[in-house]
């Protein structure tokens, strides 16, 4: 891969950067102007969320980008690259569009989605709840119990898996793939920040949208929403990183194979892929045997014409082979 097609080509890169900077500064101003940002519903659900998610995304993505650009300087990490024949090193010409589009989606497209979520809360309360009841608790000081938080988090994870799987698979329909989803799949060997290198409409409808609707479905406390959204940022960055790093969860093998083959592994957790059988090629290829948390700094064997032996799986994965590798 030596070039990227322009995402949203009618909007030049300088304009994407300008909109991103203006929007991010507006969020910082809203946070600073609020007398109590931890009880301000809009600041909590939109401004603070966008700011934290964006900072976390780039805090994780930029160090990985340095490894992509200069793999010879970071051999301890680069030896774990899943597709070593591609983007090693990453062509510098890809960096500017990657940063611009990812920043735009994280800040501007993310803001659009969160504003839509915020706008839905009040109508839901009027339609389905008695006066005084809240669809979401938008007050950081009203901490939910552990049982409430875990229950809400589980509902979010399950709902987001269902919504993301089906919206993602829909984007692979030829009519939508050509005009929307293709830009994301130009990263056949993805890098961390390519997690949200996509058309803004895709980010709203298939990335951020399912997570926001899942949050509404769970009637989640804002603190649970924060836990899920921050974990989701870490998850999507790591599974797009292109490196199967030791001792790091989650394993990126499942989603990296989706970028390599395109028509497999559409979900996040793998639950819907198992249900629909869209992980069959992944399993038959043997790559599923490498899917797990590795417990050694040694690089996984790539390009084997045979499956891993039981001794090899134990050597690389230990007990995690039971839970991850070979699933």
Describe this protein's structure.
By secondary structure, the protein is mostly helical. The chain has one domain. Helices cover 60% and strands 0% of the residues. It is built from 13 helices and no strands. Helix 4 packs parallel to helix 7. The radius of gyration is 20 Å and the shape is globular.
Which characteristics define this entry?
327 residues; 0% strand
Summarize the structure.
With 327 residues, the chain is mainly α.
Task: List strands and helices in order, with pairings.
Layout: H1 13-33, H2 41-69, H3 75-78, H4 95-128, H5 146-171, H6 174-185, H7 200-218, H8 222-239, H9 253-261, H10 271-276, H11 280-285, H12 310-317, H13 320-323
Distance between the termini: 30 Å
Oligomer: single chain
Query: What is the molecular shape?
Result: globular
Number of domains: 1
Which class best fits the helix and strand makeup?
mainly alpha
Tell me the β content: under 5%
| Mean pLDDT metric | 91
Q: Work out the helicity level.
A: 55-70%
Largest sheet descriptor: none
Please mark out the parts with pLDDT under 50 across 5 or more consecutive residues, or reply none: 321-327
Q: Determine Rg (CA atoms, Å).
A: 20 Å
Give the number of DSSP strands. Answer: 0
Task: Please give the count of helices.
Answer: 13
Secondary-structure element order, N to C: HHHHHHHHHHHHH
